[in-house]
Amino acid sequence: xxxFPVTRFFRLSENGVRCGAEGLFVGPTPLLARCTAGGWTVxxxxxxxxxxxDNSKDADAPGRIHxxxxxDLDFADQFAAGLDAMRKxxxxx
Length: 93
Hints:
Largest sheet: 5 strands, antiparallel
Number of helices: 3
Number of strands: 5
Distance between the termini: 34 Å
Order of helices and strands: EEEEEHHH
Shape: elongated
């Protein structure tokens, strides 16, 4: 298998989203990193923290989990909620 193609930028952050042989980044923040076994892995355990938060009870909607409340939002608000969760747990700055 050959080398990765030239890095591409998408403007979702000031420095873009880029993917290349060194990993997947949002701005300067790495989301994926190389494993010693040669594959890819998620940067850290922070994804479990975000998942736990999504599955917790929502304080503003008794009887519902946070994920259900997010599912009822429109796309822009869902996108914002996802970014907020990644910032909350240090995936994004």
